[in-house]
Design a protein that fits this description.
Length: about 400
Amino acid sequence: MRDATRPRPSTPRGTARTLAALAAALLLAGCSGGDPGEPGAQQNATSPAREVLLQPAGTQGPAPFTASTAQEGAPVSQETPPVTGVSDPAPAGHALTGSTPGLYGGTRRVASCNVEQQVSYLTADPAKARAFAEAAGIPEGHLADWLRGLTPVLLRADTRVTGHGFRNGRAEPHQAVLQAGTAVLVDRYGTPRVRCACGNPLRSPAAVEGAVHTGEAWPGYRPERVVVITPTSATVGSLLIASATDNTWLERRTGTDGDHDRRPDVLPSCAPASCDLLTDPPRPVPESSAPTTAPGHPQAPSTPPSVPPAPHHTPAAPREEERPREPVAPPVPDGGDTAPVPDAPPSPDVPPVPDGPAEQQPQPEPPPSFEELIPGDTAPRQPETFEG
């Protein structure tokens, strides 16, 4: 029989408090810990906003972490466009994995961002480094190595993200759409992690119901073609990107500045400028839904013009009533020999022979003779009589 008076084993002092702290730490780790590229780590832990900021490729945007490190794409201006409410609802976006061919672009052996400069900017300011690492979900001590493992590319579609501005010593999240042509750094799961024009960390967008746009839409912006880039299920060793100069495919190794760019062994079924990113597998872009053109990098036309332009040196053909009469060839003699064609045009002192009475009328400024229009054609005209 159990002794009812025996005291129960006591819990050591502070154990309950320690367990509670451990549970809180694990909860935080689920939001921002682990590999930064894991699908779960891409989600932002903050509550979603009700506004989605449109960010053109050529502007820094509000509250930048650093100066611009973009080296390719639209020239970056520090001026921020006026932010105004837009009644149109913000798009949810088409989900595409980060390894989709043609999702990113770039120039062969050219880095769209200066990664070492980005490392220098952030590590020189401990407060910014701490806020950046917290927003990106990485250990602060690994910030420099993590940045060096990213790949500089250009967005080729308007893309929904969660951006972060630096205010009051902290990273403040906001929902945004980045314009095609924006220079970004992507991780080894193919997702954008840094916007190079401002040094702000990027995460996957939060689901927002009833959100509206803020900011000014750029020419060619089409909400129905906005994309959301999702991480791949495993790390990728390279990205198949579109060349920004010659409408060809490039294979860029992840974690490089493009110095190992090469032609892919297996090519997609269409050229980059004519592939529709929203189809799987990629198919030629319909004329009614051509993708947004990246600033500074116009896309090649998917089909050549139906009628080529006439060369500049070709004169326009005259109308039928203005067309000069063809010269009448002389009759061939009985010997069958054709009259020889002289090597030089007749003397300019010899007046042209009229073709008929209708041309005998005097003109204020007679038109040039047929021989003057075509000097090389000097066949003699038909004489009035011929003696055999």
